[in-house]
Amino acid sequence: MKRNSVSLRNIVVGLSAALVLLMITTLGAYAQGSGKIVAKVVDGKTGEVLIRASVQIIETKQGAYTKDNGVGTISNVSPSETYHVVAKYASYKAQTIADVKVVSDQTTTLTFKLFSSGGDTLIISTEKIMVSKTTVDLGRKFSNSQVVNTPGRQRLDEIIRLTPGVYTDASSGGLSFNGSRGTSNSIRINGVETSSPVDGRTSALQNSLSKFAISEIAVVSAGGGAENGGYTGGLVNSQTKGGGEAFEFMFHYRQDVPALFSSAGNGLKQLGQNDKIYEFALGGPLGEDLHYFVTAKGNTRQFDNYFTSPVYQNLGLDVRDPQGRSGGQLANNSHYTRSVTGKLTFALLGFNISADADISSESRQFNGVGTVYADPANLTAQNEFNNIYSLTGRSQIGEGILELEASYSTQSRYYGKYDQSQSSGLFSTYKMYKPTDQYTYDDNSHTLSLK
Question: Which long-range contacts (CB under 8 A, 24 or more apart) does 310-316 make?
Fold first, then answer.
């Protein structure tokens, strides 16, 4: 009995140690999505460093005091392009630097020159950083303004493909990094893995998100740190945007106009896919330390060829068969995506807390050249649902950082035949047929019979 008691105690200790190690490993993996601000505060006339001056990000309330060298460091800062950082010192006029850009895994350097006179806070603009001195991996980072304003790119995978060495893997529909398969990547939203644990496919969540929802897309195509792990292709981490001190409202509607499409050299018209996008964003302050930002997006495509390059774009020409069917617009090939995101940021008990929810669904029919003449009743469809809920708390304690994170994600995919009398749409999914067992088994006679 004593031996068993010791064995049980060892098991409990071992499991506890494994749990602690898992928590440390998880926190380390998530920390890669934040940046750092290093600010130096000096006297504007003499250039003398100011010790114990306060430096604070107005939007997040994160801050630090300068040391003996006049430098203060704010760590674990979420990526953004619109931070306001203020420096204060007793009997000096406060100074605010506007539009401070923070990039994940990089350091933003600021210099404040304070003058010993009263009055209002002086606001200046930060200098644009043209070259990063701290980047060690290969890839690219896309800021919110780049994601929103890049012409001709409506979905996140189209933005990501602007990274050198990244293109569409036509065999799986994912992204290929330097020749890797599209199922070998790690695709994350706010640091939470979204790739399917079964087949490695990218979930519908990434391309369902509104461009307005993104604060940064970090793409690592080679040379990523071993702390990330779990992939042999590329790493993509998209982070959602938080609300600021000013109210924001944005709305975007887009549709293709086939009449403006060009024709090929043989005179055949290039066809559209009835691609329509609806998206909006709303955000701002709810209180002194409480901010929100929500987005919603719907995307409908009536004619969609999945395994074309680039994916989700129909490159077909108006080539017709004797029955009048067009190879450039295959019927029964609709595709609908929907998403809602929300981020709430607030301060509580010394922690800067971010609560995130990212919800998406996708419905699509599968028809191709090989099934265009098949009975529509035998065609298949798919409904996919992807949800991520995460909570992050960060606090700076002296020289150290305390970071607590929790997340919960779900991914469901239903594939098969569907009720064709009830079509899908922007606000409805396909009604899938479910297999049912109509037989009972008798254990005594070992026979099957209908119910």
Answer: 310/157, 310/158, 310/161, 310/167, 310/168, 311/157, 311/168, 311/170, 311/173, 312/155, 312/157, 312/207, 313/273, 314/271, 314/272, 314/273, 315/270, 316/270, 316/271
Tally the residues of the chain: 451
Q: Which amino acid is at 202?
A: T
* Phi, psi for residue 336 in degrees, rounded to 5: -130, 135
Bridge partners (DSSP) listed for residue 255? 276
Candidate from 33-47, 262-276, 282-296 with smallest mean pLDDT: 262-276
Residue 210: partners with Cβ closer than 8 Å, 6 or more residues away: 279, 280, 281, 295, 296, 297, 339, 341
What helix, strand, coil percent values describe the chain, rounded to 5?
Answer: 15, 45, 40
Q: Are 322 and 30 in contact (CB under 8 A)?
A: no
CB neighbours of residue 92 within 10 Å: 20
Q: Where are the alpha helices (DSSP H) in 315-414?
A: none
User: Which pTM value belongs to this model?
Assistant: 0.76
